[in-house]
Amino acid sequence: MKVCGDEVGDLTEAFNQMLTQIQSQDSALQTAQHELQEQVIALQREIGERKRAEAAQARLTAILEATPDIVMSANPNGIPFYLNRAGHEILGVGQDRDISGMKTLYLHPEWAREIFAKGRLPEAIRHGSWAGETTILARNGKEIHVSQVLIAHKSPEGKVEYFSTVLRDMTEYREAEEALRLSQQKLLETSRLAGMAEVATGVLHNVGNVLNSVNVSAGLVVERLRRSKAPKLAKAAALLTAHNGDLGQYLTNDVNGQKLPGYLANLGEFFIVENAELLNEVDQLSRNIEHIKEVVAMQQSYAKVSGVFENLQAHRLVEDAIAMNIGAFERHGVEVERQFSAVPAIRVDRHKVLQILINLIRNAKYALDDVERMDKKIVISISAPNERYIQIVVSDNGIGISPENLTRIFAHGFTTREGGHGFGLHSGAIAARSMGGAITVASAGIGEGATFTLELPIASTASVT
């Protein structure tokens, strides 16, 4: 408060001004302290973030240094500024060597450089990245097949700032791939031989059954000939010859001569019956021999066409497979029911399909051997559920398959049958796959029978061989 211009008033005014000034300075000081505190907090945050970034970078560097893959970064001109430990080792670059004198393009052999420079690098720049397979030069100029990912890191304006790449040595993979290819090739060859063995076994079974009938017929013919009355006819002819001069008197007055015409008549009737029986047995013998020839010819026809894809009718292949097993069905009292629908021709390897079908049908027969029942039955059906595939289904009312074995049934070496080799279903599945088809199995469990479904591709044309 100002007091009438006296000294006290001046002093009070001066004091008020000083107080206002002190308050203003105090306020400025508090503001400065607050700003300083914020700056300190921001600096602490920045230091924390930098430490976390450095820790993250250290972890990333540790990962990059530990990976067995080559990791490299290079500027837009292809001059590297980072190469991890694996890269130094695989490329034969010393750890203490300055890599700025290298050129990433020259990591590739001469024949691959132009491909990389004109194709893959522009693609990475255009799309941001490229991934594929290429070849690089390792130590001592050795070429190594690698898979590569190349990334072009760009600025917000779209300009390439640097490149990073990861290269993985595919040598072991390629060797494993080649080993697998050779193994599969051997497996397919073994499968083919196993299939031929299955067919040959079927041939031997059927030929053996027919040969039994041949032996029976031949034995009957031999027995008939042994019991033939032909020698007695010769004796009667000898009597007639002996009385050639007095034949009339001999036939009229001699007791033996009087019996001779009747004896000859009876002998003639016997020969007629005997001739008919012999003809019947010889005819049966001829039919059996013809059956043997057909079975052998069938096996030969399949053996000749292995590896050739043809347009074929499914029911003919099924009938041939049944014929190969017909002897076993008769011996074991197995009824075979056919449920064939009209389906288009299929494009398959005749021999492989026969191999699969013989194996499926024989397995069904084995499954029926393990059950005590009178109504042993195999149902074989053919249908076309869609326009791409036909299905051949082999079902039996045999021993069935346990749930835990359903997932293992097609594994190599797996079998539940004593004396089985565990190869048939595995090789069959491979053969089906090689033709663009598949085999599946279903069973409700032990004692419930089993159903195998063979799926085969329909031919693009309807012509049938």
List keywords for this structure.
465 residues, alpha+beta, Beta-Lactamase, 11 helices, 18% strand
Are there runs of 5+ residues with pLDDT below 50, and where?
A: 461-465
Number of helices: 11
Strand content: 15-25%
Largest sheet: 5 strands, antiparallel
Query: What's the alpha carbon Rg, rounded to whole Å?
Result: 48 Å
How many domain units? 4
Helix content: 55-70%
Q: On the 0-100 scale, what is the average pLDDT?
A: 81
User: CATH class of the largest domain, please?
Assistant: Alpha Beta
> CATH fold name of the largest domain, please?
Heat Shock Protein 90
Please give the order of strands in the largest beta sheet.
Answer: 2-1-5-4-3
- SS elements, strand count: 12
State the CATH superfamily name of the largest domain: Histidine kinase-like ATPase, C-terminal domain
Second rung of CATH, namely the architecture of the largest domain: 2-Layer Sandwich
Provide the structure class. alpha+beta
Give helix and strand order, one letter per element, not per position: HEEHHEEEHHHHEHEEHEEHHEE
Shape: elongated
In whole angstroms, how far apart are the ends? 126 Å
Indicate the topology.
Elements: H1 7-66, E1 70-74, E2 80-83, H2 85-91, H3 110-127, E3 129-137, E4 143-154, E5 160-169, H4 171-226, H5 230-242, H6 247-253, H7 255-304, E6 309-312, H8 314-332, E7 335-340, E8 346-349, H9 350-369, E9 377-383, E10 389-396, H10 403-406, H11 424-434, E11 438-442, E12 450-457
Parallel strand pairs: 7-9
Antiparallel strand pairs: 1-2, 1-5, 3-4, 4-5, 6-8, 9-10, 10-12, 11-12
